[in-house]
Amino acid sequence: MTILYLVRHGETVDNANHIMQGQTPGELNEKGVQQAKELAEQLKDEPIDAFVSSDLRRSIHTCELIAAPHGEIVATTPLLRERDWGSFTGKYIPDLANLNDPSQWPDDIESLDALKARAKEFLAWVGQEYAGKRVVAVGHGIINKAIQSVYYDKPMNELRPMGNAEVRRLELLG
């Protein structure tokens, strides 16, 4: 069995300012660095075999901080990237609040089907690449929700959102 510790990156400057980051690199703010260090402290005695991150800077930085007590390097994968928000990227999130109906959204936003396909591919990759290992994987709010949606076979809107630097443990059967 592969144990997956699914983590959302620490708080970023854009999170604090309610900006839609999407696939921009993002930068942890002071609170985000502290959140990652606190999680590193919580996980320091766990027998973790590998550390994997989205290839976006905010997740890499979070994962590096978590991996530091273990003396391990961080592998990256684009499979863990946040949802591509297209034209919504960089927008002030409260300004988008009235656009609840995806039919009102621009065509350049990654579809839920594509997002969930990527989530399924990530789970298969982790299960194959790290079979029988314990893996910390640092991603983002929406891709992590899609991964859990696939894992639990539940609609995304039935899953509780993850807070910054929150971890959820998933058991992947070989």
Would you mind describing this structure in some detail?
The chain is of the alpha/beta class and 174 residues long. Helix content is 34%, strand content 16%. It has five helices and five strands, in the order βααβαβαβαβ. It has helices at residues 13-16, 30-43, 57-67, 112-129, 141-152; strands at 2-8, 50-54, 74-77, 134-139, 167-172. A five-stranded mixed sheet has the order 3-2-4-1-5, sandwiched between helices. α2 (30-43) packs parallel to α3 (57-67) and α4 (112-129) packs across α5. The radius of gyration is 16 Å and the shape is globular. It starts with a strand and ends with a strand.
Q: Percent of residues in helical segments?
A: 25-40%
Biggest pleated-sheet summary: 5 strands, mixed
> What are the low-pLDDT stretches, counting only 5+ consecutive residues below 50?
none
Radius of gyration: 16 Å
